[in-house]
Amino acid sequence: MSVTLSKLSLRNARRQARDYLVYFGAMVMAAALLYSFNGLMFSEEILTLSKSMNQMPLLIVMVSIVVVCVFGWLVSYSTGFILARRSRELGTYLLIGLENRQVARLFFQENLVVGGCALALGLLLGSLLFQAMRAMVFALFGQAYHFSIAFSLSAAGLTAVYFVLIYLLALGRSRRRIRKTQICDLIYFDKRNEGALIGSGKKRRGLFAVSMVFGIVGALLMMAGDLTLGMVGAGCLIAFLYGFFLSFASAVPAFFDKCPARKYKGQRLLVFRTLTAKLATMGVLMATMSMIFTATLVSEGMGLVFRGIFVGRGAEKACFDLYIGTGGKEEIHREYLDYIDANISVVQCRQYSVYESGEARLIDYVKERETYNDYGYRGDPIIGYSDYAALRVLAGYETVEPIKDKYIIHCMSYLEGALKGYDEDLVLGGVALSFGGVHTEHFLQRYGEGNGYGFILVVPDEVAMACAVHHSAYAAKTSEPVSEGQYYDICAIREEVESRSGEYDAVYSKTAEEAEAASGTATAVFPLYFLALALTMTAATILTIQQLAESGRYKRQFDLLHRLGMDVGEMKKALGLQSAIYYAMPAIPSLLMGVPILLNLAKMPEPGIMVGWSSPAAVVGIAVGMFFLIYGIYILLAYISLRRNVLPEE
Amino acid sequence: MLRVKNIEKYYGSKNNVTKALDRVSFDVADGEFIAIMGASGSGKTTLLNCISTIDRVSAGDILLDGESIADIPSGRLARFRRERLGFVFQDFNLLDTLTVEENIGLALALNHEDPEEVSRKVGEMAGRLEIEDILGKFPYQVSGGQKQRAAVARAMVAGQSLLLADEPTGALDSRASKNLLEIMTRMNQSAGATILMVTHDAYSASYAGRVLFLKDGRIFNELLRGDRGRGIFYHEILDVLAAMGGDVSDVI
Q1: Is A184 in Cβ contact with B119 (below 8 Å)?
Q2: Mean pLDDT calculated for residue range B55-60
């Protein structure tokens, strides 16, 4: 017989991976996530998609540090939990003559084995995940994706370093704890009563009432839409969270005392007594879970907001293959045109002027109804019909009917509602013009050097030419996309022109803008989702470990209830309800806090770009949906596992 | 062999102190089989825990072969437990990832004894406890009585001189209890094992040569079996329990 410490560690590790499958699975996913993001960071192919992608490694490393801390906490919490659950077994090792340091080494080794297996499996899974992310990045840049088996040693090495950090930091604590512990603390750990942070029922009920007040005030302040009030509201909601979860366990019995008839209705007594028994000692943990879920929602929402900003801005600026708008009133500088003639295959182009009227009637009208910044226009921006029609052709839009005594408004889609209601006649240069409709295609209307700001009036050419020039512009359609190099060459010309004239011209190319939107999305959004996933997984894993750890107790309870005559169908309902409330409890406060934060975040960018799938409602809907998708998987797995392990056979 | 001198044990904090042991003194000679009886909360498990180094006394001294266990440095404590003390608990405390054989030999194997020597010792001890046929099984595959015999084997395989048993029959049916107690008696008589057993049960205690009765943390009485038969001793134990004033049913 040759049982060595290492063999024992291996057996225990196998059992730990089986008994705490959710935790093991979470660590496999942690390794897979870390590897796949490291893979992006080390992939030359990805980093050379655009110059803007050079920011990506720094952001991924910064987020990875936070994620390592989050997973470190998960490992630390889980090993502490496992240690407590196995305290009697560890005490037995001491009792049969092992030294504390040997037991500490045993526990350390078995966790390292679990971590090592999770890392190995995670690297395999991560390779597939990396392919999925590679495909997403290629799709963002509009490039064709081809599957290729690749394993990055650098990414795997960095993932291993992160894992070593996670495990060393977390296990160091357990190791110190075991080395210092007394046998009686371990042997009799499971016979001790768990301590509640606030002992007296009266204090708890008081705390419950106060926390509810904080909750209501906090929610109202968060809804107020003001940043300062919102921050105070968030503080109130955090106080509510901790107060509520620390006192909930005593509020339920108090409620039952006041309304004794209600407690016997349906499965209410069973469900709430089971819940309060669980929550009495995990109030701080539940509040922390709620905070983590809020951070998850904010992280996902921020990702969506950034995506909205990049996509919205990109779409508005990328409507022409090439566009140059002067910073002053002068014509387009010759250097630009010479470079374009010599280097870029232009199919069609247009040089034109954007004018402004002597009045700001439409600007004032819009300002009264929508968030609007005139961006330097003192009068309403104007363009001649011929130029407008030519620009529509260059942008690939449908042509519009010639106008004689009419004006058309071309605006960003967010102003459409307001401007459709403006059907007054305009008198420009002595010519009376009637309202001829609204168009809302992307038309480079987000900057002063573009085609108006937010909107532009399209009027007959002679009417436009009678107005003052605001700036000049050049737009072109090319047979080949303007390359990143050509774009930077034109930007260099702009620097020369600026140093000479002091005016800063706007230069946009479809390819550069699309690349910037894609790299911005990849650089900012991917790491935020990475963080959100890590947070959700950590919190959901801890909640599930806690829930499944009660399987034995629940089984005894349901066996007893079965003997007392309770129907299995009723038990299923009770278990389902108890699971639903248990998982909903930390999620609902996080929705109360997270949704107002997301709505405010989504309203922060300049008006007109957070529309469609990036509108505030969509941001909230998608962020909440994504969160519940991941969380729901955990809830479902935990419920299935509980049902299988706990309920008696029918 | 064992001398317990005026030991006291307190639990709790400044506002809520419980005196679990109050100036308890007694001696245990080599090869004795002693039972410690008392109602719940009388301090019997605390006494056993203090002797077994699981817990520490608040005052007084416990000497094993003349050496105070409080003076054993923490570095030597593991070796002391390994070589001198054997433990048996009510709920067995076997490790469920190990077979019965591995459970018995674990401490020897982890301390680098020759594997063949470990197997020999385990086999010999299993033979004495009549569990050779379950050595390859895991704890969840054997009965409660077999588990407890495996626990006794583990407690004695390294040649420990003192077996400390806390309610060893508490989780067993009457047949398994009788079987275990007979084996323990045999170990005591033929192998010279010194046994200190905490029990609620007068029937279990009647197998011992001497019974100490604890009440409210103090030794209330002491009963020696001498040459009397086990049946007579059993009734004498019941008489003492009745005289202790507690509910006899509480300790039967």
Answers
A1: no
A2: 90
CB within 8 Å: B107 and A96? yes
H or E element in which residue B5 lies: strand B2-13
**Closest of B6, B49, B56, B9 to residue B27, by C-alpha:** B6
Q: How far is CA B88 from CA B84, B93, B123, in A?
A: 14, 8, 19
- Whether B249 shows a pLDDT value over 60: the answer reads no
Among A480, A503, A524, residue at a domain's last position? A480
Alpha-carbon distance of A248 to A254, in angstroms, equals 10
Instruction: Calculate the average pLDDT of chain A.
Output: 87
Residues A189 and A329 in one domain: no
In tens, the pLDDT along B132-145 reads 999 999 999 999 99
Residues A42 and A185 in one domain: yes
Look at residues A461, A480, A499 and tell me which one is the last residue of a structural domain: A480
pLDDT tens per residue, range B61-98: 999 888 898 888 877 888 888 888 888 988 888 888 88
Reference A291, options A626, A92, A587, A650; nearest CA is: A587
Report the number of distinct structural domains present in chain A.
2
Q: Which residues does residue A474 pair with via DSSP β-bridges, in sequence order?
A: A324, A351
Q: In this predicted complex, what is the ipTM?
A: 0.84
Closest residue in A to B136 (Cα–Cα): A1
Closest CA to B150 of B163, B136, B135: B135
The Cα–Cα gap between A74 and A541 comes to: 8
The answer as to whether A284 is a domain residue is: no
C-beta separation of A509 from A552 below 8 A: no
Q: Identify whether A357 is part of a domain.
A: yes
Location of structure tokens 């005030």: A217
B 118-147 near A (Cβ less than 8 A): 118-119, 122
Q: How many CB atoms lie within 10 A of CB B90?
A: 19
How far does the CA of residue A94 sit from the closest CA of chain B (Å)?
7
Task: Among B40, B45, B110, pick the best mutation site for testing chain A contact (most A Cβ within 10 A).
Answer: B110
CATH architecture of B2-250: 3-Layer(aba) Sandwich (3.40)
Q: Domain containing A71: what range?
A: 1-194
Contacts of A165 (CB under 8 A, 6+ apart): A68, A72
Q: Do A474 and A330 reside in the same domain of the chain?
A: yes
The predicted-structure confidence for A91-101, as pLDDT tens digits, reads as follows 888 888 888 88
B229 Cα to chain A: minimum distance (Å): 35
Residue whose structure tokens are 């080494």: A105
Q: Which of A82, A95, A103 to mutate against chain B (most B CBs within 10 Å)?
A: A95
Do B83 and A183 count as a contact with CB atoms less than 8 A apart? no
Q: Which residue of A has its CA nearest to B81?
A: A97
> Which residues does chain B have within 8 Å of residue A89's beta carbon, measured at their own beta carbons?
93, 95
One-character DSSP codes across B122-148: HHHHHHHTT-GGGTTS-GGGS-HHHHH
Do the domain assignments include residue A516?
Answer: no
Predicted confidence band at A25 (pLDDT cuts at 50, 70, 90)? very high
Closest CA of chain A from B109, distance in Å: 6
Query: Is some CB atom of chain A closer than 8 A to the CB atom of B72?
Result: no
pLDDT (tens digit, 9 = 90+) per residue, B150-173?
Answer: 999 999 888 888 999 999 998 889
pLDDT of residue B14: 66
pLDDT band at residue B131 using 50, 70 and 90 as cut-offs: very high
- Residue A485 covered by a domain: no
